[in-house]
Amino acid sequence: MLNGALIPKTCKLTQICFALGATLLLFPFAIFALDCLTLAVGGSIAAWQAWVGLVISCGLCFQQNSNRKQALIVLAIALGVIGLSLWVSGSIYDFSWDGQNYHQEAILQLSAGWNPFYRYLDQSLDHSIWLNHYAKASWMIQSSLYQMTQHLETAKAINWILLVASFCLTVAALRETIPLPKGWIIAIASLLALNPVVIVQLSSFTIDGLLASLLLILGVLLYWIGSGGTFMPLFWLAAASAILLINLKFTSLVYAIIFIFGLLVWLFFRDRKVFYQASIGFLFCLFIGVAGAGFNPYITNILKQGNPFYPLRGNENVDIIAPQIPKNFIGLNPIEKLLFSVFAESDDARNTTAQLKIPFSVKLREIGEVSSARVGGFGVLFSGAVCLSLIVVCFRKWKPFQLTTVALGTILASTLINPEAWWARYAPQVWFFMPMAIAPGWIVQKPALNRKVLRFSSYALALVLSINCASIVAPEIFQSIRGAITVNQQINKLKQSGITQVSVQYNLFRGNRTRFLEHGITWTEVNRNQKLPCKNPTQFYRSRTLFCPISKV
Questions:
Q1: How far apart are the C-alpha atoms of 219 and 241, rounded to whole Å?
Q2: 201-211: buried (b, 16+ CB within 10 Å) or exposed (e) per residue?
Q3: Do residues 22 and 6 make contact, with C-beta atoms less than 8 angstroms apart?
């Protein structure tokens, strides 16, 4: 799968990046596959799936790479990435609303033995509607990682692992399909992988960043297949990413289908033999992803609720958008809402009134709000980057049917099919257009005027996107470090005081209970309509959890 039959032996960068990216992708996929098989036979998720998944992914990398020295290098880097990801994730806390609410609770319920293939959680449990009916791939993988380390926060490592995997596979795909200088391939791959939605969710259990990373992996692998790459090795990796996407989120199922359909349209006209192979292969992949690994939620939702996308669709559906959508977006069509959001000031307020801004203008307030922005969620300079990308549209000669055109059309179709694509986290693929617009500056050579204009736009666009990403990364690092210090101080204060038991009101943030349990502190929960026994309870940083010490050693 990973050997020289796919990659020219002279291109070591492509070989290493492909093998490393494949290993890092197969690690969470192997865990998920083992989790599904275990649940199907009535078992429960445990640590062994993570350990065996690690052995499988590393074993495949070593066995399939004929260059043993290179295989050892790749394995060493892969293990280093996984180990570092676990350490970084375990050192910082998730401060997101959704992450502390139902994502952590789902992981803890699975770790406690819940088998969603055979039973629903009791409706009296907070967030049970989401836990019972949402897709579960990320929760299942993270449950195994949590039980492997016995530290809940380390389970966020999957975010970092798939970020690196998406970068490596993008480098390999671009290197083999687009005639660009090596430095620009690395730059474009970096910008594609460092999607703002990925950046802001690296430290959380929310899953839109995972969606962006997996969608990028699937997209570049399908593009590689369309460019004539060896089908079977690329197909197996694309199928792995597609199955993870199908079981990550309802919208990612739709996005994966559209991406695959885009490839099939291209192959139908260009290579019928590969078209038939791909059609059969991906139909089987979709069947396994939906009816097998996706038995819960897709099949169980159909059987119990009559709609695979319940509770967002079907009878008694829940409207999660109405409390969030900007007031002046009501009545607009999806394209109008998307354009308004792209050219609006970054704003994280619910039901805000979105404000248009001049491209390249920045208000200091915006920088701190990108991480949870409802509008302007791709960064403070994204609207300026869009304007620069329009230069490419004007100065590049477009053929009506070429692979790049089909790829761009596929991304656009996957965006517009979602009526709520105005919210960056719900359509992270919008970001892909901007780094892709850098490439023509180094491909187009004639006429000279077009080449010079496009070369200038490539430099300018790369600079603007880099600054845009930096303006998101810096506040995220600061907030994560400050938050980790604050929470550690709150816990250490209890331990240093000899506190062994606390009285707690979780207020929907019950995932925070691991912060006590992992430090040997027991807790007694107080209902939301009752009072805690102390006058001034402590509140966890960026959480609604309140607690009072009630006993010492």
A1: 10
A2: bbbbbbbbbbb
A3: no
Q: Which amino acid is at 432?
A: F
Residue for token pair 């350490």: 87
Q: What is the pLDDT along the chain (553 residues), one digit of tens a residue?
A: 444 444 444 478 899 999 999 999 999 999 999 999 999 999 999 999 999 999 999 999 888 888 888 999 999 999 999 999 999 999 999 999 999 999 999 999 999 999 999 999 999 999 999 999 999 999 999 999 999 999 999 999 999 999 999 999 999 999 999 988 999 999 999 999 999 999 999 999 999 999 999 999 999 999 999 999 889 999 999 999 999 999 999 999 999 999 999 999 999 999 999 999 999 999 999 999 999 999 999 999 999 999 999 999 999 899 999 999 999 999 999 999 999 999 999 999 999 999 999 999 999 999 999 999 999 999 999 999 999 998 887 777 666 568 999 999 999 999 999 999 999 999 999 999 999 999 887 776 666 667 788 888 899 999 999 999 999 999 999 999 999 999 999 999 999 999 999 999 999 999 999 999 999 999 999 998 899 999 999 999 999 999 999 877 5
CB 500 within 8 A of CB 522: yes
CB contact at 8 A, 385 and 443 = no
- Do 109 and 122 contact (CB within 8 A), yes or no? no
Dist CA 517 CA 520 (whole Å): 5
113/111 Cα distance (integer angstroms): 5
